[in-house]
Protein backbone atom coordinates (compact mmCIF):
# COMPACT_ATOMS: atom_id res chain seq x y z
CA UNK A 1 0.00 0.00 0.00
CA UNK A 2 1.49 3.30 -1.03
CA UNK A 3 -1.18 5.73 0.12
CA UNK A 4 -1.07 6.13 3.91
CA UNK A 5 -4.78 7.02 3.99
CA UNK A 6 -5.75 3.58 2.66
CA UNK A 7 -6.48 0.79 5.16
CA UNK A 8 -3.57 -1.59 5.70
CA UNK A 9 -4.20 -4.85 3.87
CA UNK A 10 -2.54 -8.19 3.26
CA UNK A 11 -4.40 -10.70 1.11
CA UNK A 12 -3.83 -14.47 1.13
CA UNK A 13 -4.70 -16.53 -1.95
CA UNK A 14 -3.96 -20.10 -2.96
CA UNK A 15 -5.57 -23.45 -3.63
CA UNK A 16 -8.02 -25.17 -1.32
CA UNK A 17 -6.37 -26.30 1.93
CA UNK A 18 -3.14 -24.35 1.42
CA UNK A 19 -3.52 -22.97 4.95
CA UNK A 20 -4.91 -19.54 4.10
CA UNK A 21 -7.20 -19.29 7.12
CA UNK A 22 -4.88 -20.82 9.65
CA UNK A 23 -1.85 -18.79 8.53
CA UNK A 24 -3.92 -15.64 7.98
CA UNK A 25 -5.21 -15.73 11.53
CA UNK A 26 -1.68 -16.01 12.90
CA UNK A 27 -0.36 -13.21 10.69
CA UNK A 28 -3.23 -10.93 11.73
CA UNK A 29 -2.58 -11.59 15.41
CA UNK A 30 1.10 -10.69 15.06
CA UNK A 31 0.48 -7.59 12.96
CA UNK A 32 -2.42 -6.59 15.28
CA UNK A 33 -4.77 -6.30 12.33
CA UNK A 34 -8.32 -7.63 11.99
CA UNK A 35 -8.61 -11.00 10.27
CA UNK A 36 -11.28 -11.49 7.60
CA UNK A 37 -12.09 -14.80 5.92
CA UNK A 38 -14.27 -14.00 2.91
CA UNK A 39 -15.73 -17.54 2.75
CA UNK A 40 -16.96 -17.13 6.32
CA UNK A 41 -18.51 -13.79 5.43
CA UNK A 42 -20.37 -15.34 2.49
CA UNK A 43 -21.55 -18.25 4.65
CA UNK A 44 -22.78 -16.00 7.44
CA UNK A 45 -24.73 -13.87 4.97
CA UNK A 46 -25.98 -16.52 2.51
CA UNK A 47 -25.72 -20.01 4.05
CA UNK A 48 -23.35 -22.91 3.46
CA UNK A 49 -21.11 -23.03 0.38
CA UNK A 50 -22.44 -26.43 -0.79
CA UNK A 51 -26.00 -25.10 -0.57
CA UNK A 52 -25.14 -21.93 -2.53
CA UNK A 53 -23.48 -24.02 -5.26
CA UNK A 54 -26.44 -26.40 -5.34
CA UNK A 55 -29.20 -23.79 -5.40
CA UNK A 56 -27.64 -21.03 -7.49
CA UNK A 57 -24.47 -22.38 -9.15
CA UNK A 58 -20.82 -21.44 -9.01
CA UNK A 59 -21.30 -18.15 -10.92
CA UNK A 60 -23.58 -16.85 -8.22
CA UNK A 61 -21.11 -17.88 -5.52
CA UNK A 62 -18.31 -16.00 -7.36
CA UNK A 63 -20.43 -12.83 -7.41
CA UNK A 64 -21.13 -13.08 -3.67
CA UNK A 65 -17.44 -13.74 -3.09
CA UNK A 66 -16.40 -10.71 -5.19
CA UNK A 67 -18.68 -8.49 -3.15
CA UNK A 68 -17.27 -9.89 0.12
CA UNK A 69 -13.70 -9.30 -1.14
CA UNK A 70 -14.51 -5.69 -2.12
CA UNK A 71 -15.94 -4.94 1.32
CA UNK A 72 -13.05 -6.65 3.11
CA UNK A 73 -10.50 -4.60 1.15
CA UNK A 74 -12.36 -1.43 2.09
CA UNK A 75 -12.24 -2.40 5.76
CA UNK A 76 -8.59 -3.51 5.71
CA UNK A 77 -6.79 -6.22 7.64
CA UNK A 78 -5.42 -9.65 6.81
CA UNK A 79 -7.87 -11.13 4.31
CA UNK A 80 -8.07 -14.82 3.34
CA UNK A 81 -9.82 -15.58 0.08
CA UNK A 82 -11.42 -18.86 -1.02
CA UNK A 83 -9.28 -20.91 -3.40
CA UNK A 84 -11.32 -20.04 -6.48
CA UNK A 85 -11.67 -16.30 -5.92
CA UNK A 86 -8.90 -15.61 -8.46
CA UNK A 87 -10.96 -17.22 -11.25
CA UNK A 88 -13.16 -14.12 -11.29
CA UNK A 89 -11.75 -11.25 -13.39
CA UNK A 90 -13.52 -8.66 -11.24
CA UNK A 91 -11.98 -10.08 -8.07
CA UNK A 92 -8.53 -10.13 -9.67
CA UNK A 93 -8.97 -6.48 -10.61
CA UNK A 94 -9.88 -5.66 -6.99
CA UNK A 95 -6.58 -7.20 -5.84
CA UNK A 96 -4.41 -4.96 -7.99
CA UNK A 97 -2.42 -2.52 -5.84
CA UNK A 98 -2.75 -4.73 -2.73
CA UNK A 99 0.00 -6.93 -1.31
CA UNK A 100 -1.05 -10.50 -2.14
CA UNK A 101 0.60 -13.62 -0.71
CA UNK A 102 0.20 -16.80 -2.78
CA UNK A 103 0.33 -19.92 -0.59
CA UNK A 104 1.28 -23.08 -2.49
CA UNK A 105 1.11 -26.67 -1.27
CA UNK A 106 1.95 -30.04 -2.80
CA UNK A 107 -0.69 -32.69 -3.59
CA UNK A 108 1.00 -35.07 -1.11
CA UNK A 109 0.74 -32.56 1.72
CA UNK A 110 -2.84 -31.64 0.92
CA UNK A 111 -4.33 -35.15 1.02
CA UNK A 112 -5.11 -35.19 4.75
CA UNK A 113 -6.21 -31.59 4.79
CA UNK A 114 -8.97 -32.06 2.21
CA UNK A 115 -10.40 -35.20 3.81
CA UNK A 116 -12.90 -33.14 5.82
CA UNK A 117 -15.31 -32.43 2.92
CA UNK A 118 -17.49 -29.32 2.56
CA UNK A 119 -15.81 -28.32 -0.71
CA UNK A 120 -18.26 -29.00 -3.53
CA UNK A 121 -15.61 -28.77 -6.26
CA UNK A 122 -13.78 -31.76 -4.74
CA UNK A 123 -16.82 -34.02 -4.58
CA UNK A 124 -16.15 -37.25 -6.47
CA UNK A 125 -13.93 -40.30 -6.49
CA UNK A 126 -10.46 -38.92 -6.03
CA UNK A 127 -10.32 -35.51 -4.35
CA UNK A 128 -6.51 -35.22 -4.62
CA UNK A 129 -6.56 -35.76 -8.40
CA UNK A 130 -9.38 -33.24 -8.71
CA UNK A 131 -7.57 -30.78 -6.39
CA UNK A 132 -4.38 -31.07 -8.49
CA UNK A 133 -6.25 -30.52 -11.74
CA UNK A 134 -8.03 -27.43 -10.37
CA UNK A 135 -4.77 -26.01 -8.99
CA UNK A 136 -3.03 -26.43 -12.35
CA UNK A 137 -5.93 -24.72 -14.15
CA UNK A 138 -5.70 -21.74 -11.80
CA UNK A 139 -1.96 -21.41 -11.31
CA UNK A 140 -1.61 -18.64 -13.89
CA UNK A 141 -4.23 -16.53 -12.09
CA UNK A 142 -2.51 -16.98 -8.75
CA UNK A 143 0.79 -15.91 -10.31
CA UNK A 144 -0.93 -12.93 -11.91
CA UNK A 145 -2.19 -11.49 -8.60
CA UNK A 146 0.70 -12.58 -6.35
CA UNK A 147 3.27 -10.20 -4.89
CA UNK A 148 5.16 -13.08 -3.24
CA UNK A 149 4.83 -16.87 -2.88
CA UNK A 150 5.32 -19.15 0.15
CA UNK A 151 5.03 -22.94 0.18
CA UNK A 152 3.14 -24.50 3.11
CA UNK A 153 3.82 -28.19 2.42
CA UNK A 154 6.55 -28.93 4.93
CA UNK A 155 7.00 -26.26 7.55
CA UNK A 156 4.77 -25.52 10.55
CA UNK A 157 2.07 -22.93 9.88
CA UNK A 158 3.48 -20.70 12.63
CA UNK A 159 6.90 -20.51 10.92
CA UNK A 160 5.32 -19.66 7.59
CA UNK A 161 3.23 -16.97 9.30
CA UNK A 162 6.41 -15.49 10.80
CA UNK A 163 8.05 -15.37 7.35
CA UNK A 164 5.01 -13.61 5.92
CA UNK A 165 5.03 -11.06 8.75
CA UNK A 166 8.73 -10.38 8.09
CA UNK A 167 8.05 -9.97 4.38
CA UNK A 168 5.11 -7.59 5.04
CA UNK A 169 7.17 -5.46 7.43
CA UNK A 170 9.90 -5.21 4.80
CA UNK A 171 7.37 -3.68 2.41
CA UNK A 172 6.69 -0.69 4.67
C1 LIG B 1 -13.28 -23.01 -3.51
C2 LIG B 1 -12.55 -22.97 -2.34
C3 LIG B 1 -13.20 -22.91 -1.03
C4 LIG B 1 -14.56 -22.24 -1.13
C5 LIG B 1 -15.39 -22.93 -2.16
C6 LIG B 1 -14.77 -22.90 -3.54
C7 LIG B 1 -12.56 -23.12 -4.78
O1 LIG B 1 -12.36 -22.17 -0.13
O2 LIG B 1 -14.43 -20.87 -1.44
O3 LIG B 1 -15.60 -24.26 -1.75
O4 LIG B 1 -13.17 -22.89 -5.85
O5 LIG B 1 -11.33 -23.42 -4.75
P1 LIG B 1 -10.99 -22.76 0.51
O6 LIG B 1 -9.89 -22.43 -0.45
O7 LIG B 1 -10.85 -22.02 1.79
O8 LIG B 1 -11.19 -24.23 0.68
Task: Report on the architecture of this protein.
The chain has a five-stranded parallel sheet with strand order 2-3-1-4-5, with helices on both faces. It has eight helices and five strands, in the order E-H-E-H-H-H-E-H-E-H-H-E-H. The protein has 172 residues and is an alpha/beta fold. It has a single domain (7-167), classed as P-loop containing nucleotide triphosphate hydrolases (Rossmann fold, 3-Layer(aba) Sandwich), CATH 3.40.50.300. Helix 2 packs across helix 4 (58-75) and helix 4 (58-75) runs parallel beside helix 5 (89-95). The chain has helices at residues 20-31, 38-46, 49-56, 58-75, 89-95, 107-113, 127-145, 157-170; strands at residues 9-13, 35-37, 77-80, 100-104, 148-151. Shikimate-3-phosphate is lined by residues 16-17, 20, 39, 49, 82-84, 119-121.
Amino acid sequence: MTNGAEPLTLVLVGPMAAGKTSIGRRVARTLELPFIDTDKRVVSEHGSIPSIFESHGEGHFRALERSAVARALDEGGVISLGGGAVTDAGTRELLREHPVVFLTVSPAAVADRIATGGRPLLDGDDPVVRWTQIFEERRGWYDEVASVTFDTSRRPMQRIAEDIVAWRRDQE
